[in-house]
Write a structure and sequence with these properties.
single chain, 393 residues, alpha+beta, Cytochrome Bc1 Complex, Chain A, domain 1, 2 domains, 3-stranded antiparallel sheet, 17% strand, globular
Length: 393
């Protein structure tokens, strides 16, 4: 379910991801639903919420044993589909509101998760960096929202939001089976046929780069300081973006890891993430407080080196081999296969892994350097440790 994000609805989405997989009208307690899943050869049904550009993705995942492997030929697929659609379309609710104690338990779980996110200094720094980079944009909103908004959620409000989601959300369903099974699509079409699907929208919502880089800092009780640096770009091809991220931080001899972590020993860790729908690259690391500015300068030096073509052919080949390994391993599981297809659909890039690997190998040093020159510093967030915490975070 792909949804518009607001500060008020973000925690509701996070709550629903837990609540709708904890019970249903047929199984009105977590214990009852868990026992039913166990009876279906330890089937699994779970939910989570994630960020897709400016939108939120409320994701429900179910996995179960293929009917051919059932000891007594039980119709596991049919029973699991009934359980999943029952949880989503006939939740544990009465009189337009979710029921306790499941609602109360899941709400407390959400509040605990929000508190844990703040206590995890790296996650806290990343969220503050996101807020700084995407000021005024929906992407700045945490996927779990704020604690105050989460505390204000009522059973009736959550139920109303879920009914609105069913009526208005863009819904995509992916199913991976060992062999074609038309009954799966037929069941889901019948279950969700009453809802008018929303028109598909692009996930890309590029964030404009600031005219002047924004810098923000906080001090917090910890032994290890954090720095998150955000670079944005106007436009890169998928293969250019993948190659840049790999050379900077994706391969074993990446520029950031090799130079800052191994050679200069400036940080405890240094990681790179890409937010392709926002045209943003995150670089975050843990270091000592007195090294924050040195780390910041050294990261920029590696960006400049990449822009000047200071990388080896072995590194670019390592990036391609890394992609080929990841693409090949996707077929090892149903979840990996579905995830790969979802990623292709989100990007509207349906090239085969072989074609994409060929595009990566086709990038010249000049093209890679020119792509790197599109990276522009947008914002910097620093979390300064005051050294009072007893253990590293």
């Amino acid at each position: 379910f792909y949804l518009r994000r607001t500060p008020e609805t973000a925690p509701v989405y996070a709550l629903l991801s837990d609540l709708l997989t904890a019970s249903s009208a047929d199984y009105p307690s977590g214990a009852a639903l868990s026992m039913r899943l166990d009876s279906l050869y330890a089937a699994d049904f779970s939910g989570r919420v994630s960020s897709c550009g400016d939108r939120a993705a409320l994701i429900f995942t179910a996995s179960w044993l293929d009917d051919r492997l059932a000891l007594e030929q039980e119709p596991v697929t049919a029973e699991m589909l009934a359980l999943v659609t029952g949880c989503l379309l006939h939740p544990n609710a009465e009189n337009g509101a979710f029921c306790d104690p499941e609602f109360r338990i899941c709400k407390q779980n959400l509040l605990d998760d929000i508190d844990c996110e703040k206590n995890d200094k790296r996650e806290y720094a990343l969220q503050k960096a996101v807020e700084l980079a995407y000021q005024g944009e929906p992407a700045a909103i945490s996927v779990r929202g704020s604690r105050s908004d989460a505390e204000a959620i009522t059973p009736a409000q959550a139920y109303q939001v879920w009914q609105e989601i069913l009526r208005t959300a863009e819904i995509r369903i992916y199913c991976v089976t060992p062999q074609p099974d038309p009954t799966v699509a037929a069941h889901l079409q019948q279950a969700f046929g009453a809802f008018t699907p929303a028109a598909p929208q692009s996930f890309f919502a590029p964030s404009p780069c600031k005219a002047k880089p924004a810098v923000s800092a906080e001090t917090m009780s910890a032994e290890q300081s954090k720095i998150v640096i955000m670079y944005k770009y106007d436009d890169l091809t998928h293969e250019e973006e993948y190659m840049l991220c790999s050379l900077l931080g994706g391969i074993s001899d990446s520029m950031l890891f090799t130079n800052l972590r191994e050679k200069q020993q400036l940080c405890y860790y240094i990681l790179l993430q890409c937010a392709p729908y926002k045209h943003t690259i995150f670089i975050d690391c843990g270091t000592e407080t007195d090294r924050l500015e040195t780390v910041r300068q050294s990261i920029q030096e590696q960006i400049t080196a990449l822009q000047n073509g200071a990388f080896t052919d072995q590194m670019t080949e390592s990036a391609v081999l890394r992609y080929e390994r990841i693409a090949a391993s996707a077929a090892d599981s149903a979840a990996g296969t579905a995830g790969a297809q979802i990623a292709r659909d989100h990007r509207q890039d349906h090239r085969t892994p072989a074609a994409f690997a060929a595009a990566l190998r086709g990038l010249s040093r000049t093209q890679i350097a020119a792509a790197a020159q599109k990276l522009r510093l947008d914002s910097v967030f620093m979390l300064r440790a005051d050294g009072e915490e007893s253990a590293e975070t």
